[in-house]
Amino acid sequence: MKTKKIHKTNKVLRSIVYAIIIVNCQLSIVNCIAQGGAAINTTGNEANVSAML
After folding, report:
1. What is the CB-side half-sphere exposure of residue 52 using CA atoms within 13 A?
2. Which residues contact 41 (CB under 8 A, 6 or more apart)?
3. CA pair distance 28, 10, nearest whole angstrom
4. Rg (Cα) of the chain, in Å, rounded?
5. N or C: which end of the chain has fewer CB within 10 A?
């Protein structure tokens, strides 16, 4: 009886950890993509990828 309870608890904890990892990765990807178009210029052109702000 105890082993079934422990096994079920391990499954729940593993699912929670996987969900946290997936959300963390998705937020990291969104943050990286969001930085692609940042430019401060007067002409309105896209940013040069080798330029540093």
Report:
1. 0
2. 47
3. 27
4. 22
5. N
25 pLDDT band, cuts 50/70/90, is confident
Written as six digits, the tokens of 50 are 């080798």
The rounded distance, in Å, linking the Cα atoms of 20 and 28 is: 12
Judged against a pLDDT cut of 60, whether residue 35 lies above it is answered with no
Residue 24, C-beta contacts closer than 8 angstroms, at least 6 positions apart: none
Q: Report the run of H or E that residue 2 belongs to, with start and end.
A: helix 2-34
- Give mean pLDDT, residues 29-52: 69
Locus of tokens 């079934």: 4
> Taking residues 5-25, what's their average pLDDT?
91
